[in-house]
Predict the structure.
Amino acid sequence: MSFYMPLGLLGLLGVPVLILIYILKRRYREETVPSTFMWKRSLAYMKKRFPWNLRNSILLLLQILAIVLVSFILARPYVVAKKSNEVIAIIDASASMMSQDETGTTRFARAVKKVEELAEDAGPNSRVTVITAGDTAKQHIYRSDVRADIKRALAECACTYSSPDLEGALRLAESAQEENTQAKIVLYTDTAYETADGVEIIDVTNGEWNIAALGLEAQQNGGIWSFKGKVCSYGDDLTVTALLYVDGEYVSAKKVSCTDGVPAEVAFRDYESVDFTYAQLIVSVEGGTDALTADNTYSYYRPAQAKKNIQVAYGPGCYDGFLYSALRVVNDGGVTTAVQVNDLDENGCELRTTVSGVLQDSRIKYSGFDLYIFVGVMPETLPQDGALWFINPPVVTVEDENGTPVQKQIQFPEGISARVGDSFEASESDRAYSLGLNITDEEPYASVLRGLSLQNVAVKKYTSIESDKYVGLVRCNFNTVLAAGQEGHQRVMILTIALSDLPTNMLDYVVLMGNMFAYSCPDVIDDQIYTVGESAVITVPPGASEITVLRDNTPVKVVPADDMEYLFTLPGNYEFQITVVHTGADNMTEAETETLYCFAAIPSEDSNIYSTQDSIGAEPLPDGLVTKLEPTEIWWYFLIALMIVLMAEWWVYYRV
């Protein structure tokens, strides 16, 4: 036993004081009375009931004991248990823990129930910590001995459809164990571990079995499509029915004999279709209860078309057939529309145009393209629905107020937060200007330089680019000549050298064009098959106003259009409906919806509801770590004893 306030024991000095009071107690005074007859009779009666000396002794002992008890109460005594039953409970909250037995009880619910039983024994040295290992490890309650709080925390625990973050859960458990080295870590899971160091494993399986659709691929041969799926049974050998649906319509069914834990392939051939959006593989079995239905469907979406619509506007004398050819290579043969500008005004903007012989004597109106390229020319107004390239911006010659011809470097149209500076041109005797790379790790700008060297590449003339917002990528004589940036959702690239000035045999030429194209026209969604716990990267196109997210045809949320990462927390078929506003030639706006499709599956390892792992283990505790057991205050026991002593003292003094 120890004391929080040992100075309270000074109250024991009252014991000798009390004894001294008894010793120095005043004697009786002599008084003359008429008769002592009644006193003698009364005294004789009292001596028969209780001897006077014994009565005084008992009173003294009770009063001494009361002083001792009061002193102990003031000193606040406590004790520390020599043993602790503290438990750090980790509950596996992965998708496989949603498996249900024949009664409809999930493994996760059974694990929670077992931890609730620990709460019944909770006390000062039988504390409970609860941690769930879902997509991220989460601590719900920390070293609590309050049963109601533990049960409340368990009620808030939830299972996820992702893989368990056991590493993070163990880190949290180890932190709690440092407070009490005698606490044990207990993992409630359905995974079998061959070895477990420092962790007690509680198996929560109950004879369940599961069938799963693990994959679906498609291949086209002419107008005929073939589909190949993968199915599996876990927990039992079963005959599985595999159904194929295309764009929501039934196509075919196959019976597949599955051996426990061994994936089997199923083929669907000769599906005639020119085009389709998605196909689905759905598995089922007759009789029994499939423990986990979240993996009974697997969807395949056709990849989006990679070709982009490109419009190239050439200024007078700036046509470059090599650029046109390079664009066809990087755009997978996509057709570009070439616009030849015949004349410019004093601001470098086009006056009359010829567009493949269609538009005569008309100003160019830009709408409906993914990428707009201006070579040696500036547009009157910026397109709003595509990426922008400005290559070799024009330098026009005008007369100053004295009539002297001067070169004037034009400014970009409103909406471009960059400007061009001085122009430089090497003379016949001067050597050309060498190009160099401004290496950066910032994405997506770093991707523009990937695979480039630009060694021994020089140009005769260039114009510098000045901007605090744009990222300089290529330099010439310490001046930026290639810069990239964003204006809202529009990706912009500025190159202030003429491509025709570059050596036509430069190996970097097509690589540079490909990188610039990939930066300017990224896929709106980076993939079409995901696993729960992963994120889809959405790059919204210019002109987008909002994004509507749907899961299995049910709206999830509507958000303003912006580049985003969407985290998949539930399996299913997802749609991202992006509303894009186009401005037509008559300046009228028109909204259209671009729909992107993808599928999110639970982790394949969680479909195996009887998976095994080599090992799991907690990190050894640091050397010299002292166990921090919580002390238990016992002053209230002394308070109860004090009340009993005072009652006895009163009874002896007044009743005996």
About this structure: Residues 52-75 form the longest helix (24 residues). Residues 128 and 279 are 48 Å apart (CA to CA).
